[in-house]
Structure prediction request, 305 residues.
Amino acid sequence: MLRKKALKRIYLTTLVLFIMLITFTFDYLQEDSKDTLQEVEFVSNLNTSHIYLLNEDNFLVCVDILLDKSDTVSMAYEIINNLFVSNKKYSNLKGIIPSNTKINSIDFRDNTITIDFSNDLLKVNKDLEEKVVESIVYSLLELDGVENVVIKIDGANLTYLEKSEKNLPILLNESLGINKTYDITSLKDTKKVVLYYVFTSYDKDYYVPVTKYLNSSQDKVKIIIDSLKGNYFSSTTLSSYLNQKTDIKDYYLDEDILTITFNSLNQENLESVTYTLASSIFDSMDVNKVIFEVDSNIVAVKLRN
Prediction:
């Protein structure tokens, strides 16, 4: 009898402990689930964007960043703060805005960001004066809805670069150009194309847009292909994955869709090859889709972002 009572007490005690354990585990999982959902929600609020930092050859290099804000003005502040020379997070890359520069204000309306700096902004050498403007403008243009940038110095519109003696429009956009190079000998057959090269640092590839002005009677597709497979930047750290033996067999434009047929494409680096080619075409021509073919077989399709 006593043995039965003892067993009964043990059974009841065990049952109570088991129920308590189940209840505790359920509550814990619920709280853990809430925390996980909060973490997921927090992560989903992050925005990705690009900024343009300077490499050792004074080319502005496109770098991916995460922004923890969601409104345009706050993200603009984050972007600009990443462009200061104190930003040394990336190997062989650095910010370009002088460290003493103050951000007086940032305003966003009518698809235009207006940013007012202190007069320390352009206290750089002549070779970097225009690069400072390019870095700011192209980094801010990466934000959704931003089509123009206005730069002010202590309240006055920046319309002239004294050291490089260059005039600037009040509204700055992609027409400004970035990493500009000039191969012009006359005013005849002048063209402007944007070429995407690759900068490699510690086994990581970064993309570098180069705005090239040149004299040429060729159309832009041929100029882009020939430029990217040439050795124009062989003396720098920029490179292209486009093989020099690559040739265009045919290409045609149907409204805003460009189809290009090649004799061959580097299959090992197909993504980099098609990305740099498509980006160059999108930034140089009124095209929204590029179809890449090799011997009439589609190997890649790229859409304008």
Remarks:
- The two ends are 81 Å apart (CA to CA).
- The mean pLDDT is 85.
